[in-house]
Amino acid sequence: MFISNNACLVPNSFWLTGIPGLESLHIWLSIPFSSMYLVAVVGNVTILAVIKMERSLHQPMYFFLCMLAVIDLVLSTSTMPKLLAIFWFGARNIDLDACLTQMFFIHCFATVESGIFLAMAFDRYVAICDPLHHTSVLTHAVVGRLGLAALLRGVLYIGPLPLMIRLRLPLYRTQIIAHSYCEHMAVVTMACGDTTVNNFYGMGIGFLVLVLDSLAITVSYVMIFKAVMGLGTPEARLKTLGTCSSHICAILVFYIPIAVSSLTHRFGHDVPPHIHILLANFYLLIPPILNPVVYAVRTKQIRERFLHILKAESQPK
What we know:
Elements: E1 2-3, E2 9-10, E3 13-16, H1 26-53, H2 60-89, E4 93-95, H3 96-129, H4 134-137, H5 140-158, H6 160-168, E5 176-177, H7 184-188, H8 196-229, H9 234-267, H10 273-298, H11 300-314
Parallel strand pairs: 3-5
Antiparallel strand pairs: 1-2, 3-4
């Protein structure tokens, strides 16, 4: 590490604080966090296994659900092992390149997840508003291309973030990141140089992903509701809306924690730092935990197949 004349550092690594202000409780905090991470991993792996084993679930909606499960595994695994290492072993040091890699994976796959929700909204729109052409429009190849497009969009949007930090911001006031993981703004705010470009780019990506994606999803559901209201009987309306309920719940589970965390970070200046950090961790943990639960509870085929597997395993051999 080199210290320049203006007391700015050129660090090879950073120091993550974990949950600032709650250091004495880290070992106790590890219990709920490790439990939630375990539930997230088991739940999403179970969803992947059930859909793989049950051929009747090889449909567009369930393929998108598999993509969500993989994304949720990547998101939770990008942060939780390091957080638990901080809690259990005090392993706060993180290499600069590892920090930027973690930043890329977190923000990239959060962007990809938003894109998958948008693709799922399109799937529900076609299934309800043009059901006769659903299978011809949403073929396996089209579903794969939509997933690839969401992944490429995430890479293209987020790829410049760590690159701009690496190339434009070599000097830092401190090595201590007041966070439990390498979040973009937490790193940028420590920099000594001009961070205007980084700030505006980060805000622009946030607008493109969260605002535009949520608007597009809202428009698709407005059109869906119009089509549903045109159905003849209340029973038909409820049955049709029931096919969208899991997707709507998953969207709320994804966007509400992000919105709360972002608003608290931007405007909650009186909110204690540990609340900021806890909210930031929850928005990466809550969707991976709740998505499998929502789809297992709300989707009859997944629920029945899962119960069938459990019964088969419990029978004596």
